[in-house]
TrEMBL record:
Coiled coil: none annotated. It comes from the Bacteria. The lineage of its organism: Bacteria, Pseudomonadati, Pseudomonadota, Betaproteobacteria, Burkholderiales. This is AlpA family transcriptional regulator. It comes from Ottowia oryzae.
């Protein structure tokens, strides 16, 4: 069975450029790339030699995880988002 014919509407993925990622996360370029390098932030998707984007769904998931972690009973709010 072809997954695209399953009857459910296809979820369209949208991309975010760096300024939108910075705005949504509150992080700056250096923190975003540093987090991606060590695996603590979503990896960018290279569209061309000079154009990278992030999947909106991955950024929203990352934000939700940070919120959930900050509300956990043993959470310490150290201010370091990428620790």
């Amino acid at each position: 069975m072809n997954p695209s014919n399953s009857g459910a509407p296809a979820q369209r993925e949208s991309f975010l450029r760096l300024p939108a990622v910075e705005q949504q996360t509150g992080l700056k370029k250096s923190a975003i790339y540093a987090g991606a390098k060590v695996g603590r932030f979503p990896q960018p998707v290279r569209l061309s030699r000079r154009c990278v984007v992030w999947r909106d769904s991955e950024i929203q998931q990352w934000i939700a995880e940070r919120v959930a972690a900050s509300q956990a009973p043993n959470a310490t709010n150290s201010g370091a988002m990428l620790k």
